[in-house]
Design goal:
Helix content: 25-40%
Number of strands: 24
Strand content: 15-25%
Strand order of the largest sheet: 6-9-10-24-23-22-19-12
Length: 593
Amino acid sequence: MHTYRTHHCGQLRQSHAGETVKISGWVHRKRDHGNLLFVDLRDHNGLMQCVVDTDSACFPILEAVKNESVICCTGKIVERSNDTKNSKMPTGDVELVVEHAEVLSVAQMLPIQVNSSADFPEETRLRYRFLDLRREKLHENIVLRSQVISSLRRRMIDSGFMEFQTPILTSSSPEGARDYLVPSRVHPGHFYALPQAPQQFKQLLMVAGFDKYFQIAPCFRDEDARADRSPGEFYQLDFEMSFVTQDDVFAAIEPVLHGVFEEFSKGRTVSPYPFVRIPFDESMLKYGSDKPDLRNPLIIADVTEVFKGSDFSVFAQAIDSGSIVRAIPALGTATQPRSFFDKFNDWARGEGAAGLGYITFTEEGAKGPIAKFLPEDRLNTLRNLAKVGAGDSVFFVCGPELTAAKFAGAVRKKLGEDLGLLDKNAFQFCWIVDFPMYEWNEDLKKVDFSHNPFSMPQGGLEALNTMDPLHIKAYQYDIVCNGIELSSGAIRNHLPEVMYKAFDIAGYPKEEVEERFGGLLNAFKFGAPPHGGSAPGVDRIVMMLADEPNIREVIAFPLTQQAQDLLMQAPAPVGVERLKELHIQVKLPLKKG
């Protein structure tokens, strides 16, 4: 018999009755029933009920052992009586009558109760993450993560992609976030950067003649945490393809994502592919976001013409100054009490807006604080544009185009949630396409890249030479699911002359481009194929499949929101001798007060 186990705890069934087995695991829970002591033993595979009576030599051992101690039990599997069977446990038809017990490791007083679903402060959970990971829900999430990654890898290989690893120590790149820097011992005053993404390397692989690349890539960005973004590091399904158009990239990744989501959906519906494609401008108009949640049926409308030159001077004057008006329909809310609309008005003010005007439409006509300023012909136009009728309401947002669009999107999101319009059992995918190549940087008062600087502009060099930069679109796309961006991607700019011009428009002279991106640029001068790709976020995929609102719940050892590892005590000071070896002198900021 094996030293520690012949079976896993969750493996034993009625078919094993009569067998003598050995199992090992953690003491999950104990129950003393007088003459009998029940011990639920847990390992990675599940739970098994062990029982011992007071006459057994094992009784004192099991009676004294504390929860989460590790023990090994040998005994016979017996079928439980019908009235004691537990249908909620896979092993609930049988139990192990303990004949021999050995304590392998004693647990001290627990800072976290593993056998409970009670909430504990996140700081405590992360400091004792090894205990937290024993808890059923989190343990299942990490198992799910492993299964999802295996499924992604298998599907990519089956689609003809080859897996390569790209460097972790590299140079700084313009991905839009701060780099993590690593000092070089042998090159004083010089630093490596941890890759924000394998962007340049995967493009170089295409130039090198590999046709389809992928990897489950670690990426490092020194940025603040959010519910759907972990500080420090994250993982993505990074892939790139040669001699492809945008349609080819979509056709390659859609079956992979659809298949993975369907495999782990637990009965939830998944958008069939090809996924719907929505141009960026249309998305900002209809949904007020470039990450629309298509489970929400509400569609925003531009109703600027309804208020232009109207008697509602607040909007009319703003429109004359360049503002727009967006209408967000609230279907079926015309009979809501006044408090419903007041609540939204207070919420809007809490979000920094002046308020939230509205009109309700009933069989008797239009009502609300704005309705009296609009004659019937304008109200009819409003109904048609907003696609509302009797029984519905419309909220209004007025302001500069981008500001109004984003706030209208926030109103749409809140209405969808508050009115219960979202289908919680669906995964709705879409592509956002035709992103602007450039945007106006108000802080720097200059044209800047709006997204990925390595994207191919639509129209190529001619567009860069002849068009207003703010009107140029890029072969750039995002894939979105349920309002969460899973990845950005693009058809890449593989032509040196186009890259020089594209960066020149954004204020980068030729010399700086060659200095910062010399490796990639030089490669393009020796024959580069048209290529493109994307990089869906693994953490976000698992977060959605696990139905977790916080991304840290699907990462085994995440950092805190302050980018600290409480378990391993990182980051931490480094000794003076080590700093000398790295030619570094630390100058700490002055303490306030």
